[in-house]
């Protein structure tokens, strides 16, 4: 069962591996008995379906979830259902990769106009004069 990201990117089965463990937190006896938490491991660095630019952006977005061997590890224990946790974690991975596919907007640096600088400084001067008048009355 492959995971489709968009028209060009589709992740193969071997790139994804899931493991299940007991969830922490409240939930009573269910938490102690059932392995409902899901850990998804995606071999991002070895993936042939991701372009190099997307891999670089994905590494930056993943942060500390990116391992030394180039995998992304995501965990989910939000619900009591293992099936629902699997769906949630896959949705998160798809959202993360989609975010990495978007190229950041190129920002053109601009200088403030001379008029805006002058207006800003005039405002600061007026405000300073008002504050200076707040001194002690003699």
UniProtKB/TrEMBL annotation:
GO terms for biological process: rescue of stalled ribosome. This is Ribosome-associated protein. It comes from Pacificibacter maritimus. GO terms for molecular function: peptidyl-tRNA hydrolase activity; ribosome binding; translation release factor activity. Belongs to the prokaryotic/mitochondrial release factor family. Residues 106-128 have a biased composition (Basic residues). Residues 105-138 are annotated as: Disordered. Residues 129-138 have a biased composition (Basic and acidic residues). Residues 22-38 form the Prokaryotic-type class I peptide chain release factors domain. SUPFAM superfamilies: Release factor. It holds the Pfam family RF-1.
């Amino acid at each position: 069962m492959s995971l489709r990201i968009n028209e060009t990117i589709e992740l193969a089965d071997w790139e994804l591996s899931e493991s299940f463990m007991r969830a922490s937190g409240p939930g009573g006896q269910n938490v102690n008995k059932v392995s409902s938490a899901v850990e998804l491991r995606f071999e991002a660095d070895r993936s042939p379906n991701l372009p190099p630019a997307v891999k670089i952006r994905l590494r930056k977005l993943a942060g500390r979830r990116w391992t030394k061997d180039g995998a992304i590890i995501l965990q989910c224990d939000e619900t009591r259902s293992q099936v629902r946790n699997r769906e949630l974690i896959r949705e998160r991975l798809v959202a993360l990769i989609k975010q990495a596919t978007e190229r950041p907007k190129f920002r053109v640096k601009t200088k403030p106009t001379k008029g805006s600088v002058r207006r800003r400084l005039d405002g600061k001067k007026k405000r300073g004069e008002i504050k200076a008048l707040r001194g002690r009355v003699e």
